[in-house]
Design a protein that fits this description.
The protein has 119 residues and is mainly alpha-helical. It has two domains: 80 residues; 33 residues, no CATH class. Helix 1 packs antiparallel against helix 2. The longest helix has 36 residues. The protein is elongated, with a radius of gyration of 20 Å. The chain starts with 8 loop residues before the first helix and ends with a helix. 6% of the residues are buried.
Amino acid sequence: MTDRKDIDLAELRTRLETRRAELLAHSSHSEDYRKPVELDQQAVGRLSRMDALQNQQMHLEQERRRAAELARIEKTLTRMDQDQYGHCHNCGDDIELKRLEFDPTTPLCVECADRVSHV
C-alpha cells in the first residue's frame, strides 16, 4: 500500500527510533520522582510534603504523556512495517508530506483531522 516515492521512510524511521530511545531514557531517569511521597510529619514539614506531592503529580503526568507518545511511535513503526504508512486511516488518501515531516506519527490527513477535531 505504500507506493509513495515522496516519503523518505528510512529518515522518518530513524527519527522515530531516536525519539523512542529518548523517551525511554527519560522514563527510567524519572522513575524515582514518581514513587509515593513519604507522609511522615516528623521528618518533613507540611509545605515540603505539599511540594513533594505536586512534584510527584507533575512527574506522573509527564510519564503519562511519554507513554502516549511511545504508543503513537510504536503504532507508526508497525504501519511502516506493514507498508501502510503515509495514508489516512479514515479516507485512505495520501497524507501530505509536510504533515508527515512535522509529525511522523500522524495517522490522518488534514481534512479528516479537521473533521475529528470539530466533533
